[in-house]
Amino acid sequence: MSSSQNKALVSAQRLPGKPYLDRADVVIIGNGIAGLTAAVETRRLAPDKRIVIITDQIHPTINTPALKQFAIAKLSREQLLAYPAGTERKEGIHLISTRVEEIHANSKYVKTTGNRGFSYDKLLIATGSSPMGLPENIPGRDFDGVLTLHRLQDYLDLRRRLPEVSEAVVVGGGVHAVETVMGLLYWGIRVHWLIRGNTFMSNVFDQDASEMVLYGVRRAGALVHMKTEVVGVIGRVGVIAGVITNQQEMIPCQLLLTCTGTQANTKLAKWCTLPMRHHEKGIMVNDQLCTNIPNIFAAGDVAALKNPQTGKYEPRAQWYAAVSQ
Fold this sequence. Notes:
By secondary structure, the protein is an alpha/beta fold.
């Protein structure tokens, strides 16, 4: 590690009307795979730059697609690491555990909790996404045993509960849902899979391809309910006992898992002193991942790139897309 990397942060200073500011050349918000990969690549291309990652995540960067394998005990927690332990220290990347509250684009600094902050030359927003979960108007959505699978903590919670579960309901019509269904079947759990549409992944598969997938899942033992949604959760002393569907059916279960997609974390676009182009699907960027504000970039699940076929800005919420960005 070079001496310049050891001095990656310039001492905090207080300027009138501003928080206490540390200094870095590159500030990255978020330590998911997009954020950490960007930091590692920046270090490779610019050995003397001062690089800071700011995150409120309490664990190192993990391989999130592998969480399904972790759920069925085929991987340990250590095997989930996306990079070898200690990568940040080895590369001279400073990891700061705090939350960014505002982006002051005119003055080129971010404000964090505790009235502190970091000035930057380049800023990357890699805040990822959050799970959609059950709609807020669903009665009983907060009962114990109702889980939304997205982060490591969700899967740790799932692993702890599995020995006590004999019957589960999975909600969602995508890859995440079918992987979850197959994982529960692996543990010998009776699984009801609720799909809102009349086919599986209609934007990808035609009717025949959908039937082939569903046939395989049914053959593995799952009970597939098409055109079915949860309209209520039944509980007993605060713990889930079953779900009510729009088909007027009550399905008993000890576990309800929602795998209904994600939504980009675009709050920082709203908390920027200059108008940053964004919509509900992400922060709009060009092919170089530049936002409309100079020196501010976005990558990973939070970035929305223009689809050349439709002309619409869409996220590429996939692991390998985040790595390549």
